[in-house]
Amino acid sequence: MSATLVKTVGNTAGRQAVNVLIVDDEESQRAPLAAMVSAWGFHVETAGDGQEALDKLSTFGPHVIVTDLMMPRMDGFELMKRLGSDGNMPPAIVLTAFGNIETAIETIHDLGAFWFLEKPIQPAALRALLERATTQSQLAEETERLQRQLSYQGVLVDMVGTSPQMQQVFSVIRQVAPSKAPVLVAGESGTGKELVARAIHQLSNRRAGPFVAINCAAMPETLMESELFGHEKGAFTGALERRAGCFELAQHGTLLLDELVEMPSGTQAKLLRVLEDSRVRRLGGKSEISVDVRVIAATNRNVDEALKKGDLRDDLYYRLNVFQIALPQLRQRLSDLPVLCDALITHLNRKHSCNITQVTPEVMEAFHKYSWPGNVRELRNVLERAVIMAGEGAIQMAHLPYDFGVPAGSRPPAQIFEPESVRLPVGTTVGEAEKALIQLTLQHTKNNKTRAAEILGISLKTLFNKLKEYGSSDTADASA
What we know:
The chain is of the alpha/beta class. The chain contains 19 helices and 18 strands.
């Protein structure tokens, strides 16, 4: 062993033991490699093929796997496929005597290996890769640990909630995330179904892969199959080139099928086949493509009613409903309002360059008395308007919409501001009314034109053009 290698062993002595599993069918290759890696300070176990490696996983949890590709009984390809399908794939360094660019690309990208090394092995290169793979493995473990810790404090990825209802949701997410099982997320509009899907993805072994979301309700039936499965050039009128579908785009990642119940029954049947076979055929295609995608479905409809009406196929429901996460309405977890407001205001301050510190007790009391039919999405919209209106300090009742808390059927005629308002006599022209509104808005924002434009719903350039029409001297370049 070289002096350089011996010298660097001391760098690993103080760290937590890192387990490395070496898989190679040739004893003459396996034993010296294990001795060398062990001398570097790693805890090493060996296996003669992929099957033996799987058997050892029950008693030895490797942080990194170093494996040959060509082996009897179970080769390196099959080993990594099995580990990936079980959701237990640590970083893997692949060794082969038959290395080429095609094999490297297939191994790294298709099978999820960490890196590729050609035999005979260069010790320095292997040492460097082991250190990097160890760092990746430890970062993943630390991320998962921090997420677990934060979830008990009311935060899970981008989700917030300390109520018992949300803690139960967080618990299910933590349990289901490491698996490959499909998940069905049910809840009213605005409760955060996509946030649940993203949290599952971020806490899974697929976090490095893509997250693709498709809204089944917002897509014409004629385009849905093309979006899901892709199409070949000339498959139908307007198909001018080959296009990959959502399943291909989400390869090795997660696909969210939002508003699944709105998907046509015929497309549901084709989706079921893809889920069962893990293979997809583009429209107009002659061959099938293997896909490795974790599917999460979401709906704001009552699932039992959708099944009775035939809007959701029974067989697809049973295939997707391995885990079901039911999100509570905001009115059922009003105790979460303070932490939700804090989190949303922090985000909105950054978005709009404001400095809101809190909501007043009166506003919080009004929030607790409201039924929130639009759930967290409605809360965000109300706070966004209030943040823009207030600009800094605390959000007051005057910063809320004029009709906040009033049932839709009994709302009074709209006013521009409350308690401020525009009073215009009959006969006022549209141009004069527009000028009065712009001037009042500028007064309200203390001449902050960016915020005034946001309140008025116009671009900053349009606002400056209007001021120029009115003969205002304060018409600096809108791009400033």
